Amino acid sequence: LGCSGRFDLMRRIGLDVGLARIGVALSTGSLALPHSVISNDDQSILKLLDLAKEVGASVFYVGLPLSLSGSQTDSTRMAIDFAVILSEGEFEVRMVDERLTSVSAKRALHKAGKNSRQQKPLIDASAASLILDFAIASERDGNWSGLTLEAAREY
Question: Which of 56, 67, 93, 127 could form a cystine bridge with 87, CB 3.0-4.6 A?
Fold first, then answer.
């Protein structure tokens, strides 16, 4: 499923979905920037849909947490289930392999001088930013990057 218009002008949202928290990143042009962390609760979908409307987003890129071998885990199934519910809104939802994004985010924050306590609230938003950055870099020829929900389920 493609999209119309220029990709560099479209707003995108990247999500790192965890059991307790969801890291959120927004695109600005071709840049992916950490935005916030929200609780993963019964209001999270509504908050994200409201944010998408507020910023004029076209697509959600949800991290697909596969094991290092590429197989699905309980976290994978949780992220897919979350993405399926999110897709009931009016926005395109794609899944992006997120292996090692949290590890990379932790390393980057450590290098920036943040201690473990300071890192915790930032890691999820930074991981979402890495997911979104990968997605933006992978967009080609007017098509979204990542997997459709159907393809993610079969992965």
Answer: 93
| pLDDT tens string 15-27 | 999 999 999 999 9
CA 85 to chain centre: 15
Q: Tell me the residue type at 72.
A: Q
Tell me the pTM. 0.82
Distance CA 105, CA 120 (A): 10
d(CA 139, CA 80): 21
The pairing of beta strand 57-64 with beta strand 11-17: parallel
Alpha-carbon distances of 116 from 36, 85, 113, rounded to whole Å:
18, 33, 10
Sign, CA torsion 78/39/47/22: negative
Q: HEC string of 36-102? A: EEEECCCCHHHHHHHHHHHHCEEEEEEEECCCCCCCCCHHHHHHHHHHHHHCCCCCEEEEEECCCHH
Location of structure tokens 């949202």: 13
